[in-house]
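ugh ok fine here u go
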Amino acid sequence: MKNSIGIKLFIGITCFALIIVSLSWILNTNYLEGYYLRKKQDSIIKYGKEIQSDYNNDYIYDNNDKLKNIENAIGGDITIIDGFGDAIYSSSIMQFRGGGKGKGKGSSWGLGLISDEGLQMLLDGNTVLESYVHPRFHTVSLVLASPLENGHVLIMESPLASIKESVEIAQDFHIYIAIISLIIGTIIAFIFSKIFTKPIIKLNNVAKSMAHLDFSKKYTINGNDEINQLGKTINFLSDKLDASISELNRANERLQEDIEKERKLEKLRKEFVSSVSHELKTPIALIQGYGEGLKDAVIEDEDSKNFYCDVIVDEAQKMDKLVKDLLNLSALESGHYQLQRENFNIYDLIEAIINKYTPILNEKDINLEFDSDDIKMKVFADPIRIEQVLVNFVNNAINHVNEKKNIKINIIDYIEKIKITVTNTGKPIPETEIDKIWDSFYKLDKSRAREYGGTGLGLSIVKGILKLHNSNFGVQNVDSGVKFWFDIDKVL
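structure:
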């Protein structure tokens, strides 16, 4: 529920509403008073220009009501004085020339609100807009002084206290607006998230049913928007998958029948004599080599003679077992063959194989390097079958080594498995052929097959053995050679 799209949408909309309210509060707090002040200044300047453009000798008599309206609009007072500093109109005493009441001096009618610099600008014929702070009450007013015709002067005064009061009221009211907006926004976000996610949940349920190969559920179309379009597509996909999987099951049944027929044909191709000759060639060569050594008396001490005899007896026993195992080759490839698994030291096994191959390696002047992460590593496998795999890889390496004559065997320790690699310097395997070498009766270099005495079954048997061990295996071209590898379960 933590990752629900409805919750994410609800949180997103609520955060958006909070951001908008916060932004409005920041703008209201920091810029509203300045905005009001600029609007007040623009208003006073606009009315001042309006009076200035229309002013003449009879303006006050003809526009008395208009002046009062302007005073109401700016929330202040208007005073017009003549060239002698006498007020000919003042809203503060409701008096204009000929009104029958006394006249005042200029300093009493507004000029005293203007600074000396402003007064000089006014005398130069310029309009002046200044702020005036009352020396006693410390209230602030905007004062505009503008020259008129006949040497008259227009003075407009508008106190700013109302602006501050309006801003404070607006800010207080904005708090209530923010709270109400957040509450309404949260409710709307909750309702909208529910409405938005409901069809998505339905679509998800249909998709889950499809994942379990149940195509009976369908999405109910209620419109033509994007979600309903997606629902139509999922319904169409469900129907297509249902039809395709049904057809695939029928095709799979036919394929199984074809595979069974192919297996029978494959069994016919596995010639017993060829398999025996391929698998027994190396043991026979070893027995012959050690036997000739005994015959020719190339050894003198009793221990070496016993070692030669032990190798011959050991290879003869393995030959007998290999002959019986070849009879079970079909069972091996079908997965029904029973492995004789046990714990054994893989390092010792490889070292024993190298010792048996030492005469052949010396004869062919081949340098074999053996490296291991740990000489005490034990694996759980069938030792006879793993030896068969290693012997096959070593044979391949010897048969295909080039003039550099370097072979390297590595044991690499992983957490739960170990990896064994057999690398020889030589020609790389063409990429188009590299996946075919594991096939039965396949020979990469058919022109040299007679020289090696192979039948193309060796790597196929290796594949069957490693598959029974649930091992990964493969071959790859490396710098200056070819590497065969496989992994095997490690005794933890």
